[in-house]
Amino acid sequence: MMKVLLTGGAGYIGSHVAVSLAAAGHDIVCFDNLSNSRAAVIEHVEAITGQPVPLVVGDIRDRDAVRGAITDHGANAVIHFAGLKAVGESVADPMKYYDNNVRGTLSLIEAMVDCDVRTLVFSSSATVYGEPQYLPLDEAHPTAVTNPYGRTKLMIEEMLSDIAAADPAWRIAVLRYFNPVGAHDSGLIGEDPNGVPNNLMPFISRVAAGRLPELAVFGDDYATPDGTGVRDYIHVDDLAEGHVAALDRIRAQDDALSVWNLGTGQGYSVLDMISAFERINNVRVPHRVGPRRPGDVASCYASPDRARDELGWEAKRDLDAMCASTWRFERTAAMRNA
Ligand code: NAD
Ligand code: UDP
């Protein structure tokens, strides 16, 4: 049993990982500055897990605050989700991203060393692969980043690799997420972005709910079966269980740093996603084909083989479960806010 500090634990992925860690018998403490989440999320995590979940409101760039949280709660591992993730915003305001993500991670690492904690799971992204040179993307695929957000993820990966090489006592898992979607079955936690969503699934859900008039499909002339972009959508609860498996694995192995893709290996197009959402939830998602979004690639999907072989983990939940749980969260949140 571990006592795990979750930076960004009130966020979309962190809250689901908190539930999976608790289900696996680990103790958890969340650390979040609530810049993109609300404290009420933690109450929902408590309702799901049936146990108190401490929340420390603080910023990862505040070394004393992180040190205090680790010491006060006796944490012996950290899962690090805290960061900013909007690609467009990172282009407009790169300093904000280097400060929050890169400086924030360095400060977190310093606080961990102060407390003699060297077990870390880091949220990276498939964005570090850039334009795929072959598919599926395995962990050996070269990295190439195209925007400041992606660059912060790659810089952090490289920083962690240097740190692990210098001190083999580190146990670090770098997890490269593909496209996390869906919500916990309770409908109590899920993805609820501020403002107009950047990502496909929350956009579809808001159009279905009538909160947005129509979805723009970003291009239908890609070299894919139906011309729309293909991605590897993974249920957030599968992703969450991948973190539990990675934490178990790094504690048991001698490698100071390992990299694992968390994806399904299955690609779906934008039109696949729309029709699955409409069919499963019996709703309409009005959409219109528009221009391509700059920077998008045609297809991106994982080879999940290394995670399966080394973590004994694979995604179990299908597209129907991803769409149904997204809609359940949308409806539950609407009832709560009514
Ligand atoms: P999210 O915004 O829902 O969660 C991030 C949390 O971190 C938020 O609760 C926010 O308040 C907190 N936070 C941000 N900056 C902080 C700081 N300086 N100090 C303390 N807390 C801070 O995002 P998410 O979708 O849950 O993503 C979690 C992580 O996974 C991020 O690092 C993101 O880059 C990465 N990731 C996400 C996706 C995705 O599609 N959602 C894909 C790949 C990687
Ligand atoms: N997409 C779209 N309309 C939207 C948002 C996204 O057609 O309003 C497409 C996008 O071009 C990509 C896919 O949906 O092919 C997934 O986009 P998302 O932003 O969710 O993830 P990412 O680009 O990071 O893979």
Short description:
With 338 residues, the chain is of the alpha/beta class. It has helices at residues 12-23, 40-49, 63-73, 87-92, 94-114, 148-166, 200-208, 236-252, 270-281, 305-311, 319-337, and strands at 3-7, 27-32, 55-57, 77-80, 119-125, 171-177, 179-181, 215-218, 230-231, 233-235, 257-262, 268-269, 287-290, 299-300.
Task: Furnish the topology, listing elements before pairings.
Elements: E1 3-7, H1 12-23, E2 27-32, H2 40-49, E3 55-57, H3 63-73, E4 77-80, H4 87-92, H5 94-114, E5 119-125, H6 148-166, E6 171-177, E7 179-181, H7 200-208, E8 215-218, E9 230-231, E10 233-235, H8 236-252, E11 257-262, E12 268-269, H9 270-281, E13 287-290, E14 299-300, H10 305-311, H11 319-337
Parallel strand pairs: 1-2, 1-4, 2-3, 4-5, 5-6, 6-11, 7-10, 8-13, 9-14
Antiparallel strand pairs: 9-12
Helix pairs in contact: 1-2, 1-8, 3-5, 5-6, 7-9, 7-11, 9-11
Nicotinamide-adenine-dinucleotide is lined by residues 7-8, 10-14, 32-37, 59-61, 81-85, 100, 104, 123, 125, 177, 180.
Q: Any idea what the CATH superfamily of the domain at 3-182 and 233-264 is called? A: NAD(P)-binding Rossmann-like Domain
Characterize the main sheet.
7 strands, parallel
Series of secondary-structure elements, N-terminal to C-terminal? EHEHEHEHHEHEEHEEEHEEHEEHH
Beta-strand residue fraction: 15-25%
Q: Architecture of the domain at 3-182 and 233-264, according to CATH? A: 3-Layer(aba) Sandwich
Q: How far apart lie the N and C ends? A: 40 Å
The percent of residues in helical segments reads 40-55%
Oligomer category? single chain
- The total of helices stands at 11
Strand order of the largest sheet: 3-2-1-4-5-6-11
Q: Please report the total strand number as a whole number.
A: 14
Mean pLDDT value: 97
- Secondary structure class reads alpha/beta
Distinct bound molecules: nicotinamide-adenine-dinucleotide, uridine-5'-diphosphate
CA gyration radius, whole angstroms = 19 Å
- Which parts are unreliable, with pLDDT below 50 for 5 consecutive residues or more? none
Fold-level CATH name of the domain at 3-182 and 233-264: Rossmann fold
